[in-house]
Amino acid sequence: MSKMPISLNQLKTWQGEAVEVGKDLGLMTVNLTEKELIRFGRSFERQFIRNLPERQSVDIHLRHLPEALLGALIAKEQMDQEIDGEVPASNKIGGPYPIRAAWLGVGDDWEDLLGIYGGTQNSWTTGAVANWIHSGTSLLGGTGGNAVRILENAVHIIYGLYSVHASPKIESVQFTIDGKTKPPQYLHWAQKCNPGKGQFIKELDSCYILKKDTTFRAQVFISNAFGAAAEFQVDYPALFGVSYVKEPPLRERFDPAGLPGTVHNVITTS
Q1: Which helix (H) or strand (E) holds 251?
Q2: What are the residues facing 163 on neighbouring strands?
Q3: Angle at 146 between CA 142 and CA 149, to 5 degrees
Q4: Residue 237: helix, strand or coil by DSSP?
Q5: Buried b (16+ CB within 10 A) or exposed e, 60-98
Q6: Running along the chain, 270 residues long, what does each successive block of 10 average in pLDDT?
Q7: Could you give phi then psi for residue 264, rounded to 5 degrees?
Q8: Is the pTM of this model over 0.90?
Q9: CB-based contacts of 3, cutoff 8 Å, min separation 6
Q10: DSSP class of residue 125?
């Protein structure tokens, strides 16, 4: 493998900065060893630099690499194991990974909009707030509109949003974290539609950190301007960032169906 674009010394510098940010936020962290930093750098390079065709995506990941590293420090403290890259050894921590829809209780994948509604509809209503990440998905089976709860075997660092729909329509997304509603993120995707010319990505100023016992809800809004036709009510938003998940759930829950709850301690209802 060729030399990483990010040196070990740079990773050490960012780790020191991440520790200070963690202290300012009142977060518990544990430093990575040199071995872990090298694993982190290699995994990050393979997944978020080399394998992405879009320069825009790569640049966003690089700008937020220190925040992704902060997630590793939080995960190491929270799960009391070492960070072990994309194929972790038994009981160690896997990551950094792209955020998987099932780890937030959405469904089999971000495109699983039909599953969100238990198979009864395949679209959102225009001109109204709609739930996206919440306890009432078919995967979680809880109360619609309630937040999800992150459990001890997962940490997520969100620093952007993107759409995997060919013609995205969502006007804005709003998060509620630990009961506090955040300002909406205006996406402007529909106005920027340019098929074949790049991904639809919204970069955040700074990351949102989802760790053990964090409650999280995401809602979306699609303008009435598109009308009520079903083809104008569909979009497939996704979270842009990194995740860390302990190895046992990774091995045992390749199929998302049995993931929610306290057996694997990744995601549950609130």
Answers
A1: helix 247-252
A2: 200, 237
A3: 80
A4: strand
A5: bbeebbbbbbbbbbbbbbbbebbbbbeebeeebbbbbbb
A6: 70 94 95 97 91 78 95 98 96 97 92 53 76 91 95 98 85 96 87 60 94 97 74 81 96 86 95
A7: -105, -10
A8: yes
A9: none
A10: P
